[in-house]
Each structure stands twice: as C-alpha cells, then as structure tokens.
Amino acid sequence: MSHSFGLRALRLVPRRFVKRSPLPVADDSQVYLLNQRSKPIYPFEEALRALRRYAVRPMDETVEISLQLNMRINKKTKRGAFQGMVLLPHPLKKKKKIIVFAEDDLAMEAKEAGASIVGGKDLIAQIQSKQIKFFDLCLSSESMYDQVKPLQQHLRAKMPHPRRGTVTDDLAEKVLQLRREQEYKVDKEGNLNVAIGKLSFPDDVILENSRCLLQAVDQHKKIKGSFFLSAVLTSTYGPGYYIALSDLIN
C-alpha cells in the first residue's frame, strides 16, 4: 500500500517543483525564417521552359498568370472587386456556352453566329424552372429585355444589361465577340487568375497574350503608384514561378 501511495504522491507534485533540463540554445547566425527570404524572380521565357520540363502528363496543359494588384485608392480607402473582358490576340479555343433571348430574325442571326441556346418566352420559362442552369454568358435583344428583367435572381451576375453591352440588337456581332474574348475577375484582395495560353503555344504568343491582359486590367487603375505588385506564371499541374513585371509591361 505504501508503495502505491508513493506513486500517487509523485503524480500530485506541482509542475513548478519539477526540475527540467534547460533547452539547448541555437546559434542565432544559423536561424532564419523562409518567409522572410526574397522569392526568386525569373524571366518570362525561363519560367515557361521550366513549366514545360514539369509537363510529363500526356495533355496540353493550360498556362495561367496570377496577378497581385494594389487595390488602394489612397491611404484610407481601398477599391472593391471588379471584372472585365479582354480580347486576346491569340485566344484559347475554349467553347463558351452562350444563351440568347431573342425571337424571329434576331434569333436566327444569333444561332448562326454560334450561340448555344436561343429562345424567347420558352427560354425564359426554362430558366425560371431551372431546366437550364449551366452557361457562361447571356445576351438579350432590346425587345426582349423587359421580359428578361424578372430573371435577375436566376441569372445574377450573368444578367444582361445595356451598360455592359449585353442588351443589343446586333446579336450576331456580339456573339462572335464574346466567343473570342476572355473574362477576368479581380477579388477585393486584388487577386487575379487568367488562362493565357497552352504549353504548346510559342513563347511569343503567350507573352503577347499576357501583355494584352495587363493592358486591359491597367485601365481600372485608380492610383498614382504601382498597380501591379507581382505576377506568377503556372500551368495546370506545374508549380508557380514569380516572373519579372518588366517583361510584361511595355
């Protein structure tokens, strides 16, 4: 009994009375934090060559550029998220699902231009009943716009609007334009990710697409200082490489 009591007593000893050996002190000259080291910045072509070396899968991987923008307007105010469209000189052949609200001749023109789904009241009913959920872009003829307005809660950000140029009677030209354009979105933190090519594209083609994107985004600049803070080039299954902004800004 005395033996068991002794073990119990040892467990009840407060920690402040337990002697511990001091921890070894490391040499300050050998200690550093990785996140405080500056990240290497590569020339654009060198980053592309590295991504191609990583491409071991039997597929043509997509090349993406990630930008970090300065969202400050002044010392106290930051701008909100924004989005836009850019017509890349060498677009990716990605099929976009475009629906168009139109009737009669305008409907026929939109269909011939490559719109995925074209319709009038029947299409409105399909959207309301959620028979059609997944699509990329939405257009409307001017005569159909008043009938389309109640679809705001269904279409949300894809809702056609005259100020966006998505309510028009020149539907054929607009469909052709949207099929070539690339959409970009910037969140409130200033992050932007856009596909700008394929690894099979020549270097100068991907570079030209990148420069065109930065020119389009630069139109939203509201500060006097630097708008583009950093740029990272990556691919579908590859790592990310910080690239020199001087290669992208003419």
Net shape: globular
State the fourth-level CATH superfamily of the largest domain.
Ribosomal protein L1/L10, rRNA-binding domain
Number of helices: 8
Biggest β-sheet description: 4 strands, antiparallel
Secondary structural class:
alpha/beta
* Helix content estimate: 25-40%
Strand order of the largest sheet: 7-1-8-9
User: In total, how many beta strands?
Assistant: 9
Secondary-structure element series = HHEEEHEHEHHHEEHEE
What's the CATH first level of the largest domain? Alpha Beta
Our measurement of the CA-to-CA distance between the termini, rounded to an integer number of angstroms, reads: 87 Å
What share of the residues does DSSP label as strand, in percent? 15-25%
Uncertain ranges: none
Kindly give the count of domains: 2
CATH architecture grouping of the largest domain: 2-Layer Sandwich
- Classify the fold: give the CATH topology of the largest domain: Ribulose 1,5 Bisphosphate Carboxylase/Oxygenase
* Mean model confidence by pLDDT: 87
- CA radius of gyration is 28 Å
Q: What would you say this structure looks like, in words?
A:
This protein folds into two domains: 39-81 and 187-247, Ribulose 1,5 Bisphosphate Carboxylase/Oxygenase, CATH 3.30.190.20; 98-179, Rossmann fold, CATH 3.40.50.790. It contains eight helices and nine strands. It has helices at residues 2-11, 44-54, 104-113, 121-128, 145-148, 152-155, 171-180, 203-218, and strands at residues 62-69, 82-87, 98-101, 117-119, 137-140, 181-186, 191-198, 228-235, 241-242. The protein is globular, with a radius of gyration of 28 Å. The mean pLDDT is 87.
